[in-house]
Design a protein that fits this description.
This protein folds into two domains: 222 residues, Dipeptide-binding Protein, domain 3 (Roll); 37 residues, no CATH class. Helices cover 34% and strands 13% of the residues. The chain contains nine helices and eight strands. The strands form two sheets. It has a six-stranded mixed β-sheet, covered by helices on one side. The two termini are 41 Å apart. The relative contact order is 0.19.
Length: 266
Amino acid sequence: MGALFWLGFNLQKKPFSDLRVRQAIAYCIDRDFIVQTLLKGTAQKATGPISPDSPFYSPAVEQFGVDIDKANELLDAAGCPRDAGGRRFQAAIDYPTEGSIFVSFAEYLRQDLLRKIGVELIISKFKGYAQWADKISNGRFDLSLDVVFNWGDPMIGVHRTYDCDNIRKGLIYSNNQGYCNPEVNRLMEAAGAEMNLAKRKVLYAEFQKLVVEDLPVYYLFKTPHRTIYNKNLAEIDDNIWGSLGPMDQVFWRKQPSAKFDPRNNQ
């Protein structure tokens, strides 16, 4: 399930190690504008680490509605004053690939954050995906735009981002933010071992609430994931992997002739 687009913070670097700074940026970003205007209503607002498509999704989390006054108050309290030009600090923002959907979001955030709260974003340039992955997985970043799939169960696609034991150098799509909350780990472990669906939902609801409060990433939106294919293709995967499956069993159906001829039926 997914895909969830988010803005990731490097919790191992100042000023993003300060929760108030992360909250200020969250209160500045208008997710409704992103979904309705930039994406023309083709996506859905994301509010937490579990996709709205999942049976374990809970909306009972902090929503971070736009509040520019509160954002500026938080930055003042965090010791990030404005200089004579109105700027508070600079930060680099990275994203996986050039020429992608991330470009417009990075530009939007760059203009929005500078205008509203005095945070100046520098958009990094990469030669390719591998260069981005190396930088992010080794903690050499400030902010990163990313898209991550939940897959079929939170144990597969969700736990990896928030597990304290998954803070590893050189491993992309891991806990690259450097986030660790022992209570979150306990909830994930309990939910992963729980066989009762109703009890799992309760555990994951509390997990989502805590993660959103800690704000290691700010969730932007969820895009639909569809597989479009020619009706003459057979054995197309219609499971959770979709077009990301190996397709080793896919074949092209032979077109029936107008008149049956056994010599051609080979």
